[in-house]
């Protein structure tokens, strides 16, 4: 069973490498747009995430913001190109 999975994974990796070699991957601008979309979504859903963490885990809102919601933005901003 593990050998069959390994062969399948090797075929998948070979296919992905072939696509990359052929120039079939997405460009940097597309990737930056995806990161900006994640940032926008995180900002729009920040309060909802904090409320959900409070409802599900009884985590205080401030703690949710400081440890869960707020650190997302700097993390993704680090990877965005500076214009």
Protein model, in words:
The chain is flat. Helix 2 runs antiparallel to helix 5 and helix 3 crosses helix 4. It has one domain. The protein has five helices and no strands. By secondary structure, the protein is an all-alpha fold.
In short:
This protein is mainly α and 83 residues long.
Principal-axis shape: flat
Order of helices and strands: HHHHH
Strand content: under 5%
Number of strands: 0
Note poorly predicted spans.
Answer: none
Task: State the major sheet.
Answer: none
Structural class: mainly alpha
Protein name: Aldehyde dehydrogenase domain-containing protein
Keywords: Oxidoreductase
GO biological process, one term: aldehyde metabolic process
InterPro entries: Ald_DH/histidinol_DH, Ald_DH_N, Aldehyde_DH_NAD(P)
Please give the structural blueprint.
Layout: H1 2-21, H2 28-44, H3 46-57, H4 61-69, H5 72-79
Helix pairs in contact: 2-5, 3-4
What are its keywords?
83 residues; 5 helices
């Amino acid at each position: 069973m593990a050998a069959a999975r390994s062969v399948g994974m090797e075929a998948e990796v070979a296919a992905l490498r072939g696509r990359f070699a052929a120039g079939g991957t997405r460009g940097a601008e597309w990737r930056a747009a995806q990161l900006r979309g994640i940032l926008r979504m995180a900002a729009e859903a920040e309060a909802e995430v904090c409320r959900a963490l409070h409802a599900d885990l009884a985590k205080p809102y401030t703690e949710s913001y400081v440890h869960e919601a707020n650190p997302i933005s700097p993390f993704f901003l680090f990877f965005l190109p500076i214009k």
